[in-house]
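Usage

Read records sequentially. Each one opens with the input sequence:
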Amino acid sequence: ERRHGFGSQPLFPAHPDKTRPVTKSTANKWLLRAEKAAGVEHLEGGLWHPYRRRWATLRKHLPVHDVAAAGGWRSLEALQQSYQAADADTVLRVVLEPGELRKVE
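and closes with the structure output:
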């Protein structure tokens, strides 16, 4: 599957062949090293998916079509069912901030 990059170049080019993307295993190693270097605990629920879930959940207040486009989701269903999660702050706002009903004439 072809991923987006910069023009015809991959976003993360392999070494020494810069026309090819890095392998998934290399990217996975980079993420684990970055977590360790940053002193961040590894998130449960996968390697990359927890970061995508957090990114999507923090954008629940934005139009879903735009969030899907920016995050690379082709399916709104996948975004909403697998990546956007309920969170305590948003649930509390739903309970405490009802909208105003207006009569349509």
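Summary fields computed downstream for this record:
- The mean pLDDT is 89.
- Strands lie at 5-6, 9-10.
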